[in-house]
Specification:
mainly alpha; 364 residues; two-stranded antiparallel sheet; 2 domains
Length: 364
């Protein structure tokens, strides 16, 4: 009898009275959910219903997921490693862009700039961004999606000092090129302001075309393309491969009447080849800028726009732009040698982005 009383009662402090202890089934109600699970499991009873009703989904690692199913899915998504597909990205981008641009002068009227021609030209220009956005949004990695929009929208990533440097850098490269060109018989009259743009594509205003080119290209290139080429490659190797692909992407433009590239080809084959070569050092320069500004896509758009308008606001000879390519090569080499850590340091490609993702998925 005493043992039964001792097992079901206990002394309360200072009261001198017996107080009933909770019965086992009452005690079970006061246990935390994880303790209840352990107890039920130890007794050999099923725990599936308790998992669903009390603690929500349980991860495969055995850790308890948040009770809110949506929050659990989001957390799992953020922990999902980012997997890029460079082959898919560049294959889609090239096939669609080239298809649209090669077809544009045949299905539409390039000189009149009718609706079909303009639509195909804009569709080809939009393709890098559309492809990058599609592959990002369909990815299972929340960190990858978050990083994309952070790099696109967060203006705080842009360092004002570096942006100011680039606002002067490309105009300075043009000034140096003009001065060097005088040694080859070209005139200082190239410093005169241009009366208008050097080319036009259909009815699309050239000013708008230069802006759209900077936006849609960099949204694709810096939003997905360059990073997809990383992984086990160094940033230097990824940028070199991208530079070649970027230049080849413009190939159909040499067959679009009225385009800047078509006019270069009409004047001299060497000028057309210079266009292809000049894009590669430019890729290195913009890559350095992006790396120093947290991968900012918006920053890359600004730099690309600066480059586009630098080519247009002075009456520069196309042959001077051949000299400028040499100047850009020297500049790119200077960036690589002065800051090798950027190009040869640890990669932040597909295998690393999930590891270094912060709370918002932005690589630190």
């Amino acid at each position: 009898m005493r043992s039964r009383i001792a097992s079901s009662r206990s002394w309360s402090n200072g009261s001198g009275r017996f107080a009933r202890s909770p019965r086992p089934r009452d005690a079970a109600r006061t246990l935390r959910p994880e303790n209840r699970l352990s107890e039920r499991h130890a007794n050999g009873k099923p725990v599936t219903s308790l998992v669903r009703s009390l603690v929500g989904p349980v991860s495969r690692t055995g850790l308890r997921a948040p009770a809110d199913g949506r929050a659990g899915i989001r957390e799992a998504s953020l922990n999902q490693p980012a997997v890029f597909s460079p082959t898919r990205f560049f294959a889609i981008t090239f096939l669609v862009t080239w298809g649209c641009w090669f077809a544009a002068p045949h299905l539409g009227d390039a000189e009149a700039g009718d609706g079909t021609f303009v639509l195909l030209m804009l569709a080809g220009l939009l393709t890098p961004f559309a492809t990058a956005l599609h592959l990002t949004l369909t990815s299972r990695s929340g960190a990858m999606k978050s990083a994309f929009f952070e790099k696109l929208l967060d203006v705080r990533l842009i360092r004002p000092g570096i942006l100011a440097l680039f606002l002067l850098l490309f105009p300075a490269s043009m000034v140096v090129s003009i001065l060097v060109s005088t040694a080859f018989g070209l005139s200082l009259d190239q410093f005169a302001l241009a009366d208008g743009f050097s080319f036009s594509v259909g009815s699309v205003p050239t000013f708008l075309l230069l802006i759209l080119a900077a936006c849609f290209e960099e949204l694709g290139w810096r939003g997905y393309g360059v990073e997809s080429l990383g992984g086990r490659r160094s940033y230097f190797a990824a940028t070199a491969i991208f530079g070649v692909l970027w230049s080849l992407w413009h190939l159909p433009m040499f067959f679009i009447p009225g385009s800047y590239q078509a006019e270069l080809l009409e004047k001299d084959l060497l000028l057309a080849l210079n266009f292809f070569v000049g894009i590669v050092p430019l890729a290195f320069i913009i890559s350095w800028f992006c790396k120093k500004n947290g991968g900012s896509i918006l920053g890359a758009v600004l730099v690309h726009a600066i480059v586009n308008f630098t080519q247009e606001f002075l009456q520069v000879s196309p042959w001077t732009k051949v000299i400028q390519t040499g100047v850009l090569v020297v500049m790119a080499a200077a960036f690589v040698m002065a800051d090798p850590e950027v190009f040869f340091g640890a990669s932040e490609g597909p295998e690393r982005i999930a590891e270094v993702a912060g709370p918002k998925g932005l690589p630190r």
